[in-house]
Amino acid sequence: MKILILTNHLNRGGITTYVISLAQGLKENGHTVKVVSRGGERVFDLEKMNIEHIFLDLFTKSEISPKIFCAKRKLFSILKKEKMDLLHPQTRITRVLAQYIYNKSNIPFVSTAHGFYKKRLAHIVFPYWGKRVIAISKAVKEDLVDRFGLKSEIVKVIYNGIDLDKFIPKKIEERKELRKKFGLENGPVIGIISRIAKIKGHEYLIKAMKIILERYSNAKLLILGEGKGKDYLKKMVKDLRMGENVIFSSLNLDTLSLFSLMDVFVLPSLEEGLGMVILEAMASNVPVVATEVGGIPEIIRNGENGLLVPPQDYLKLGEAICKILENSELRDKFIYNGRKTVEENFNLKNMVKETEKVYEEII
Predict the structure, then answer these.
(1) Per residue in 260-287, pLDDT tens?
(2) Which residues contact 308 (CB under 8 A, 6 or more apart)?
(3) In what order do the strands lie in the sheet with 189-193?
(4) pLDDT of residue 250
(5) pLDDT digits over 230-258, tens only?
(6) What is the pLDDT of residues 315-337, one digit of tens each?
(7) What is the pLDDT, as a whole number, of residue 181?
(8) Residue 167: which residues within 8 A CB-CB, separation 6 or more?
(9) Considering only CA atoms, which of 354, 282, 316, 330 is closest in space to residue 112?
(10) Are 169 and 175 in contact (CB under 8 A)?
């Protein structure tokens, strides 16, 4: 098959990781894959895999933006030369673009719903989902069916998959050296990798650090990511007098190295479609604490392969983190079961295989 994947950009994030992983897996299975986006820091990953990237300026939040119409014309000219079998848009904007292409050329499309959408006027005016919709969790599928009226039979749950070959946990000595390099050798390190936005719940993790510091005065919180709320969080840390214990960074390291700095990974989201970064943490042998929202409970079985806490409850969040830091047997259990969970239920080969089946249904 010849598949054209469309997404807004290829900067760091869950959707970008999904796109690159899917493109890689499809190519390895013998398909021709091209990716369309406005570019980003991870275009280089596609180039390393010899997967063609096509630049289209899709940086807009409006379905009627002139950028959509400019992109449509350019995409038509590309499709005249390249006969593609289907399109696979990843975002609201790229779904609209795919629908325009389908209306003119009859090239079908499958879309992926990566999370929960606000019910906006645009979804009524532009109800474009494609012949099939891939939902990244059961929770996302239920939302699409219940709130947006999609027929259950066209929505297929396919969990995100991790390429386990890229997540070979580092040896203890390597971890020690890496932590020493970044001045994190003394005391436990709690980490979060996420864009900084209110919905990701960073503020509750910062408040939870007050509880952790009462027991571990040398603990560090490593906040990796960017976003508009960063200045607010920095002020919050300053007001709480935790400047020496909370580190904001955009460390330019590979994902596995970032996780190697951590003793516990935390995702305190208020809403989450699934949580690709949780899978990456588990694959990296890092125990996880996360909130019981969205698709996260489909990954974490509380007390078996990680801990779940209610959203916005920083007291329980702090206690859960301390529970792992204080109990090495529990930590080892979560590390073993976490990696096993990814191997059995969230591996890349399964994701690609199930996605291929969906493609075959519409061609």
Answers:
(1) 999 999 999 999 999 999 999 999 999 9
(2) 289, 290, 291, 292, 296, 297, 300, 302
(3) 246-249, 220-224, 189-193, 264-267, 288-291, 307-309
(4) 77
(5) 999 999 999 999 999 999 987 667 888 89
(6) 999 999 999 999 999 999 999 99
(7) 85
(8) 256, 280, 283, 284
(9) 354
(10) no
- Here the tokens at position 362 are 């519409």
Q: What is the domain extent for residue 268?
A: 164-345
Residue 150 sits in the same domain as residue 263 = no
Contact indicator for 350, 29 with CB cutoff of 8 Å? no
Q: What is the pTM of this model?
A: 0.92
- Output phi, psi for 310, to 5 deg: -65, 150
CA distance 190 to 221: 5
Judge whether 222 and 261 are in contact, CB under 8 Å: yes
The pair of three-digit structure tokens given for residue 57, joined into one six-digit string = 């300026």
CATH of residue 41's domain is: 3.40.50.2000
Do 126 and 197 lie in a common domain?
no
Same domain for 49 and 172: no
The count of structural domains within the chain is 2
- Residues 59 and 114 reside in one and the same domain: yes
Q: Do residues 361 and 132 touch, judged by C-beta distance below 8 A? A: yes
Q: Do residues 174 and 87 both lie within one domain? A: no
Report DSSP state, residue 345. H
